[in-house]
């Protein structure tokens, strides 16, 4: 959840030794290696970058880029000494040093071997941050590692924050900042979850999956090789970001596991992590982002000791982040389940308990209240089983939510068009009872689309299977218990 201190921290602009504010929240952008040839990296990067300076449109990406009305004052500059004329309404510039105004962010769509010189040139021009798309650095062996060291040296000399190399960039939908060359990112919606992924591919996969389900993101970041911006720099920055209500991590490995864990523990914003590499994929991972995966069990233990719940899939990762972002922090791990169908309720109860959550007995007055609402109810303890959706279903949910024995509420019902969802009850219920209320359903997509959209607009975390709902509730349960345990904890494992 957002706290008042966030805005103050962001306003300073510089966190630690790296100028992250100019990297992630620029006012002026240059695309170095911009191209007027459709399909080239420099064209695609420029096509996305100009969205930062145009009115939001519902047109397709290509149509939007070609027909966009300029609304800014030239905040995106195409840089290419070979470029002629203009691209997307902006004239080519030979060098960033020729731009009269100071550029905050440079997107480098240039070959790997010239990146050190381009970074040095950006530094001389006063550029604050750069995204390096090219691969062929530390992940490519000794020669690539040497090249990456040269890039870092050039950046350090001029205080340039580097995202990458070997990354597809980042996206911040609320400001139309599309620092990525991937197609379709202009369609991503604003939301409260920030994605910090070691892999740009995973970052985009998470963001597109969220979009497909009607969810939004605060910022999506592919860290790549983490030249001088890694987890330990990005987590504190986005912890201070007023748009970020939860941070999700995709971790292959890191050179300094302790620094990563310390950054997580210091974060007031909830963090959930997916550490890959239970099987032996070390060589493959190292060839990807130059990361040594390390011992999976040690990482998992470290995250737990530092208050970070871990998951085992990208689906669980974003679901957990969504639940954390859109919910009050629970007081404990006690989950009250209300289901309109017994079979899914049994799956939920089983999965919750195996994941470390508890299903407490409901207070007697709660059970009495449920019995009064639905005389002869199938099961009124926990889970509460109503047998099927009915007009009183919302009243049952509210009764369970008001039970002092319950810290998290998880609701499941199959969609019935004649009844819809208990939207009036669910809208604002979490705030009224000051505890998370999650909703899980399934049904024909086209029939329940409007009802689902209404719930999401009301910031109700919605999931589409018993397992996903249970896993998200379990993340909330583990988060509060791990957070309490981590207050004075120390990692004994050397990750």
Task: Give a verbal description of the structure.
This protein has 495 residues and is of the alpha/beta class. It has 2 domains: 5-320, Succinyl-CoA synthetase domains (Rossmann fold, 3-Layer(aba) Sandwich); 329-483, Rossmann fold, CATH 3.40.50. It contains 19 helices and 19 strands. A 6-stranded mixed beta sheet has the order 9-8-11-10-12-13, with helices on both faces. It has a 6-stranded mixed beta sheet with strand order 15-16-14-17-18-19, with helices on both faces. Strands 2-1-5-6-7 form a 5-stranded parallel beta sheet, sandwiched between helices. The longest helix is centred in the last third of the chain and has 20 residues, at 466-485. The model is unreliable at 7-18, 54-74 and 284-290 (pLDDT under 50).
């Amino acid at each position: 959840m957002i706290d008042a201190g966030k805005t103050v921290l962001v306003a300073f602009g510089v966190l630690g030794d790296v100028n992250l504010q100019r990297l992630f929240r620029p006012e002026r952008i240059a695309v170095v290696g911009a191209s007027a040839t459709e399909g080239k990296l420099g064209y695609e990067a420029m096509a996305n970058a100009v969205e930062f300076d145009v009115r939001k449109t519902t047109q397709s990406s290509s149509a939007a880029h070609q027909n966009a009305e300029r609304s800014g004052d030239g905040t995106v500059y195409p840089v290419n000494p070979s470029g002629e004329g203009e691209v997307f309404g902006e004239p080519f510039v030979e060098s960033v040093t020729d731009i009269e105004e100071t550029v905050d962010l440079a997107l480098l769509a240039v070959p790997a071997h010239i990146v050190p010189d381009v970074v040095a040139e950006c530094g001389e021009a006063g550029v604050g941050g750069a995204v390096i798309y090219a691969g062929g650095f530390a992940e490519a062996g000794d020669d690539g590692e040497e090249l990456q060291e040269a890039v870092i040296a050039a950046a350090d000399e001029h205080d340039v924050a580097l995202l990458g190399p070997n990354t597809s960039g980042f996206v911040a939908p609320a400001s139309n900042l599309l620092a990525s060359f991937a197609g379709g990112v202009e369609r991503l919606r604003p939301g409260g979850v920030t994605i910090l992924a070691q892999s740009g591919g995973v970052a985009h996969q998470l963001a597109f999956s969220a979009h497909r389900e009607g969810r939004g993101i605060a910022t999506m970041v592919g860290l790549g090789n983490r030249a001088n911006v890694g987890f330990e720099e990005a987590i504190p920055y986005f912890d201070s970001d007023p748009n970020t209500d939860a941070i999700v991590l995709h971790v292959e490995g890191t050179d300094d596991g302790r620094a990563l864990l310390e950054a997580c523990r210091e974060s007031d914003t909830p963090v959930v992590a997916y550490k890959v590499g239970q099987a032996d994929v070390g060589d493959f991972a190292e060839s990807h982002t130059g990361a040594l995966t390390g011992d999976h069990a040690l990482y998992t233990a470290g995250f737990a000791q530092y208050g970070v719940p871990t998951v085992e899939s990208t689906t669980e990762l974003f679901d957990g982040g969504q639940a954390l972002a859109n919910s009050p922090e629970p007081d404990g791990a006690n989950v009250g389940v209300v289901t309109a169908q017994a079979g899914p309720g049994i799956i939920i109860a089983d999965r919750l308990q195996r994941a470390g959550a508890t299903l407490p007995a409901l207070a007697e007055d709660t059970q009495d209240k449920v019995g009064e609402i639905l005389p002869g109810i199938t099961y009124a303890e926990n889970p509460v089983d109503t047998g099927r959706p009915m007009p009183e279903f919302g009243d049952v949910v509210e009764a369970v939510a008001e039970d002092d024995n319950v810290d998290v509420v998880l609701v499941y019902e199959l969609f019935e068009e004649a009844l819809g969802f208990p939207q009036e009850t669910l809208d604002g219920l979490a705030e009224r009872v000051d505890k998370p209320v999650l909703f899980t359903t399934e049904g024909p997509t086209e029939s329940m689309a409007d009802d689902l959209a209404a719930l999401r607009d009301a910031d109700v975390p919605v999931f589409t299977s018993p397992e996903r709902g249970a896993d998200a509730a379990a993340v909330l349960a583990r988060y509060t218990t791990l957070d309490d345990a981590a207050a004075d904890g120390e990692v004994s494992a050397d990750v």
